[in-house]
Design a protein that fits this description.
alpha+beta; six-stranded mixed beta sheet; globular; 251 residues; single chain
């Protein structure tokens, strides 16, 4: 088993960061287990899907961030679910919550986006949760690519619950332009749904060209993330998290 690199700043100003993507099902499950999983992964950024959206949603998301040793960057009800958390290592330059065009009869979707800095690097970040409906999902993948292209940042990452496997059209649309981090550098487990019987990969982290993928997968039974247990993963939510270590070049 390979060791996933820890966060650090390189002598040339580049940054090694850990990025976690996680569907937390509105914190309806065991929040203590959820916080333990996140904390054990030691992420610099967490791309959340299904953050709380209703009564006292800000307070609930802030509680999760606090118990995970993180802070809230943006998102939540303002994006209908996607959110971004970060460690204090990140310096937040700007944020934008994006609502996508609604489709009658379907849950409205959105993107949580931010531009952050780690040491000498500048990074665009996007958290998403794509539609359950195939055609809308494909269109939203195109909107995601357009949103990244308009962020005005050289290096960017996107992650989330795609509601689709790697052979699906929306997933392939993203992977045709961005690097599918799991495919580029497999580490840990592959399948993200369901925790009790994982049989498919529908959650992913993507990166733009120039970002080096040092490892990506489900963190369970791997060196360096020994605090993640199967018991906590099953109790925390109905998805397994995706953890990636990335080297971002200096800006």
């Amino acid at each position: 088993m390979s060791l996933l690199p820890n966060s650090r700043t390189e002598p040339d100003g580049s940054a090694v960061i850990r990025v976690l993507s996680y569907n937390i099902r509105s914190m309806r499950d065991d929040t203590d287990a959820l916080a333990r999983v996140i904390r054990a992964c030691e992420p610099d950024l967490v791309l959340i899907q299904e953050a709380p959206r209703f009564f006292r949603w800000r307070k609930k998301l802030a509680r999760l961030a606090r118990e995970s040793d993180l802070v809230v960057v943006t998102g939540g009800a303002t994006t209908t679910g996607p959110a971004i958390l970060s460690s204090l290592r990140a310096s937040v330059e700007r944020t934008e919550d994006v609502l996508l065009p609604p489709t009658p009869g379907l849950h409205r979707r959105g993107f949580a986006t931010a531009v952050v800095r780690f040491a000498g690097t500048r990074l665009g970040v996007l958290s998403c949760h794509l539609s359950l409906q195939k055609d809308e999902r494909y269109d939203q993948a195109g909107m995601l690519l357009d949103r990244l292209a308009g962020m005005g940042v050289e290096h960017m990452i996107a992650g989330g619950d795609l509601n689709e496997r790697p052979d699906g059209p929306a997933f392939r649309r993203l992977a045709g332009t961005l690097t599918d981090c799991r495919a580029a550098s497999p580490w840990g487990g592959e399948h993200t749904w369901t925790p009790a019987d994982p049989y498919q990969r529908i959650d992913a982290i993507f990166a733009t060209e120039g970002i080096e993928v040092l490892g990506c997968g489900v963190p369970l039974g791997e060196p360096g993330v020994t605090g993640v247990t199967e018991t906590d993963l099953r109790a925390a939510t109905d998805h397994l998290p995706v953890l990636a270590a990335l080297r971002v070049p200096a800006s």
